[in-house]
């Protein structure tokens, strides 16, 4: 295997932290909605967080590499294997 | 099924490396009140949970706990990464290094390997949710002990987030318990 092929993917920690914040906002609203399924204001909040999350992830994946292993327009060469992984990043 | 996102749920940094602390905080990786036990407890219980709010809550909290397992794994990894053996041998981390090197391993602060005996899963939903409420309190208390023993502001920040999540999960499980009692009243009346 050609080890020189792998430069490691660039990371934008600031943008990553924003993605993490929106991801957390989704986690929290999902948990709340599970026991309050008719709470319209929190449902609206969840939808807004999810929409912002998806847009930001799409932008991140275009510029810096995968958040998900599979997504449309994955680049050549296969980028999912690129370091750093989440535990290797200084936030 | 589960799908991985290449992010942590919350940042996990260490200001300075500390193998002694790694061997303490590891209990939230593989100890009795740790995140692995929490995750497997909830995603084992979810199948027979009778009410939809309960199934969803167990599924999502079980999933989040696995993300916490990764956060604690990150802290342990960063606390000992690259530290030479002749330094590690004079720390509390020496027994871990003897058996695993610097690889993460689900064990408690004494080195006992993770065991499914830490968790319970009952078809009786009240028994399971009461177990879950207790589990969240025990995890919260453990995070407080760990925070009390750290003077690293980065670690304290991450552990404080995880502690707060235990409080939120306790609240959500409490709501599931109330819904369960409503469900059981209805069942007795009409069932």
Q: By CATH's scheme, which homologous superfamily of chain B applies? A: Ferritin, core subunit, four-helix bundle
Oligomer state equals: heterodimer
Distance between the termini of chain B: 33 Å
Report the strand count of chain B. 0
Architecture per CATH nomenclature, i.e. the level-2 architecture of chain B: Up-down Bundle
Report the mean per-residue pLDDT of chain A as an integer: 92
Number of helices of chain B: 8
In total, the number of domains of chain A comes to 1
Number of helices of chain A: 2
Biggest chain-to-chain interface with counts? A-B, 25 and 28 residues
The rounded Rg of chain B comes to 18 Å
- Estimate what percentage of residues of chain A fall within beta strands: under 5%
Reported by name, the CATH topology of chain B is Ferritin
Provide the helix percentage of chain A: 40-55%
General shape of chain B:
elongated
Query: How confident is the prediction overall: mean pLDDT of chain B?
Result: 97
**Which class best fits the helix and strand makeup of chain A?**
mainly alpha
Structure notes:
The complex is a heterodimer of chains A (91) and B (191). Chain A is mainly alpha-helical and 91 residues long. Chain A has one domain. Chain A contains 2 helices and no strands. The mean pLDDT of chain A is 92. Chain B is an all-alpha fold and 191 residues long. Chain B has one domain: Ferritin (Up-down Bundle). The mean pLDDT of chain B is 97. Chain B is 65% helix and 0% strand.
Give the arrangement of secondary structure elements:
The complex is a heterodimer of chains A (91) and B (191).
Chain A: H1 13-35, H2 40-63
Helix pairs in contact in A: 1-2
Chain B: H1 19-25, H2 27-30, H3 35-45, H4 52-80, H5 85-88, H6 94-100, H7 125-148, H8 153-190
Question: How would you summarize this macromolecular structure in one to three sentences?
Answer:
Chain A is an all-alpha fold and 91 residues long. Helix content of chain A is 52%, strand content 0%. The relative contact order of chain B is 0.19.
């Amino acid at each position: 295997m050609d080890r020189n092929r792998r430069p490691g993917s660039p990371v934008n920690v600031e943008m990553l932290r924003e993605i993490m914040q929106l991801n957390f906002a989704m986690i929290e609203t999902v948990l709340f909605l599970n026991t309050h399924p008719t709470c319209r204001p929190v449902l609206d909040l969840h939808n807004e967080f999810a929409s912002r999350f998806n847009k930001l992830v799409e932008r991140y994946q275009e510029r810096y590499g995968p958040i998900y292993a599979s997504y449309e327009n994955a680049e050549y060469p296969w980028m999912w294997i690129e370091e750093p992984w989440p535990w290797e990043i200084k936030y | 099924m589960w799908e991985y996102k290449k992010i942590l749920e919350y940042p996990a940094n260490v200001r300075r490396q500390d193998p002694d602390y790694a061997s303490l905080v590891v209990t939230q990786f593989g100890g009795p009140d740790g995140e692995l036990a929490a995750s497997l407890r909830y995603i084992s219980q979810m199948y027979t949970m009778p009410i939809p709010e309960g199934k969803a809550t167990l599924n999502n909290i079980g999933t989040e706990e696995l993300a916490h397992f990764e956060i604690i794994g990150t802290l342990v990894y960063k606390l000992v990464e690259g530290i030479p053996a002749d330094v590690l041998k004079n720390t509390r981390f020496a027994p871990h290094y003897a058996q695993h090197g610097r690889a993460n391993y689900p064990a408690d602060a004494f080195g006992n390997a993770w065991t499914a005996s830490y968790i319970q899963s009952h078809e009786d939903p009240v028994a399971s949710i009461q177990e879950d409420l207790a589990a969240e309190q025990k995890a919260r208390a453990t995070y407080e002990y760990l925070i009390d023993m750290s003077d690293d502001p980065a670690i304290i920040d991450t552990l404080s987030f995880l502690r707060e999540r235990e409080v939120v999960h306790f609240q959500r499980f409490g709501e599931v318990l109330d819904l369960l009692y409503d469900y059981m009243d209805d069942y007795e009346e009409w069932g």
